[in-house]
Amino acid sequence: MSASEEVVAGGQILDALRDGTVEACHADANSFVDRDPVFAFFGALPFGLTPGQQEAWLRFGGGLQRLNEAVEGDEVSGFPAGGTGVQMGGWFRRELKAVTDLAGLKLRAGGFNAAVLAKLGAVPQRLADRDVLTALGAGRIDGLESTGPYDDEKQGLYKAARYYFFPMGPGDGNQFILLVGRNAWTALPPAYRAAFGAACAAAGVGCAPGTTRQPEGASHRWPTACSCAPREIARAGFLAADEVYAETLAGNDAFRQIFSEWKAFRDEQVRAFGPARRGVQASSTAVVRRRPHGSDRRKPGVAPGGRESIAVGRFRATGARN
């Protein structure tokens, strides 16, 4: 097993898998979007699915089969194998109050997120993970998209940027992918293939919940202003994402076919579970903000101040998604 970019550079991974230089690679699927935008569906698209919805679409909604058929020409097979869990929006050296504040900002971003930010006036930059903190601290970049609180704290990004916003355009969580070269895969006995698939599934079970659990209290340790991005920015990002998708649909038949199925799944999830999901989250948030956990002294069955419906209504009025 080799570390990232120890054998080949990130942009050469697909070729290395094809020619057998490496047999498998665990990566962020958005790294391969420039090669083929279909790879984005393995991970996450802006304003897309939650981690649970993404897993459901891939494993039980036919998504994984359709994607592997689409990337067959690259002679690889992909398996979902963990993810970021909850994603924030991004780290910035200065406060964002309006869409115009993004104009000219050099932001480290990739994949479809980079295309969306470019439409909002930002200037996407490509940087290796190891160079991000130095570039941010020196002002060579003005900000970057966030992976999530757990990984962001490990990188020490709070040391170089004062503002931490959510959401800014990414999905609720990004899925990681384990790509295997076709020759390496076909050479495996059936029992080894089954074990490989089980290991990828286990990574999915443990990775996102683990990263969600780890950052407990992290934001309280950071000298950082953590806040919700202005609704104007989130709404502009949603519209920009629609433009990016329309442009991609026009030039890629495989993307168009999968996007149609993916969007139908996403829209149905929003219609069926969106109100309940937002309501539960908003109610829980309102209760936690009013009092510490375990401090409730109300009589059983009495609503906490009767304010849950107000919190839910406020969330509907200010949330980026309808």
Roughly how many Å is the radius of gyration?
A: 21 Å
**What's the structural domain tally?**
2
Distance between the termini: 44 Å
Total beta strands: 9
Task: Give the neighbour order of strands across the main sheet.
Answer: 5-4-6-3-7-9
Please explain how this structure is put together.
The chain is an alpha/beta fold. The chain folds into two domains: about 10-85 and about 175-215, 3-Layer(aba) Sandwich (D-Maltodextrin-Binding Protein, domain 2), CATH 3.40.190; about 90-170 and about 220-250, D-Maltodextrin-Binding Protein, domain 2, CATH 3.40.190. Helix content is about 50%, strand content about 10%. The chain is built from 13 helices and nine strands. The chain has helices at about 15-20, 40-45, 50-60, 65-70, 110-120, 130-140, 150-155, 180-185, 190-215, 220, 230-250, 255-290, 310-320; strands at about 25-30, 75-85, 90, 105-110, 125, 145, 165, 175-180, 225-230. The strands form two sheets. It has a six-stranded mixed sheet with strand order 5-4-6-3-7-9, covered by helices on one side. Helix 5 links the parallel strand 4 (about 105-110) and strand 5 (about 125). Helix 4 (about 65-70) packs across helix 12, helix 5 (about 110-120) crosses helix 11 and helix 11 (about 230-250) runs antiparallel to helix 12 (about 255-290). The protein is globular. Mean pLDDT is about 80; it is low at about 295-320.
List keywords for this structure.
D-Maltodextrin-Binding Protein, domain 2; 6-stranded mixed β-sheet; 12% strand; disordered C terminus; alpha/beta; globular
